[in-house]
Amino acid sequence: MTAHAMVMLRRDFKHLTRNPTSVFNAVLMPIVLMLMFVYMLGDAFSVGVDYVDYATPGLMLMAVCYGLGGTATAVNADMTKGVINRFKVMDVSRGAVLTGHVVTSVLTNLIAIAALVGVAFLLGFDASASALDWLGVVGMIVLLATAAGWFTVALGLAAKSPETAGMAAVPLVMLPFFSSAIVPADKMGPGLREFAEYQPFTPIIETLRGLLAGGPSAGDVIPAIAWCIGIAVVGYVWARSTFSKRA
Fold first, then answer.
1. Residue 200 · residue 227 · CB < 8 Å
2. What are the distances in angstroms from CA 92 to CA 47, 105, 150?
3. Which of 14, 119, 143, 201 could form a Cys-Cys staple with 228, CB 3.0–4.6 A?
4. 174 vs 215: CA distance, rounded Å
């Protein structure tokens, strides 16, 4: 199965590089958002620290979300265009097909976030994180990307067409805007404040923010890990179940 997964990984990367829209959404769009929020609008926000230091963790999470539409579309295209039937004839592991999409999504996210952090440093980002803290940041990003990847694969499999699969990922792209990614939750109005505080992305962002500042809080880390594991399990079970039925 490992060999099959590597073949699927190479296939998915080739498809990604041949699709300029997917590359833009996954890698360049987060950088555009960084420049817009930090360079153009940063002075409009009062968050108690340099805005680039505050916004970078939230934009790292957004970088994960912005590539999800392409993953959902690619998964659905495999199902609706007969590609899976060809793989069945070639005796390719079914699990390898899904794993290839998830791993491609994770690696793409790591590339996008590396580029994003590079731009953040150019804009004055000043992290107090130790080497161990940076390792924790990478681990949190991989955990989040894996969870989001499996959930997005499940959405793609459940959709009726590649177009609806891409649209199904839109709520995941929009959800970070209603978290503490751009401004602190306590600066939001009633109702929205509570939603921002208790939705899944806020503890993940605050965990990244704490790690980059050199002092993560267990009150954020534990819920963040729990959310990621929960989303990953739901996505994996849903994806395998839907795949078995449709394939």
1. yes
2. 52, 20, 20
3. 143
4. 28
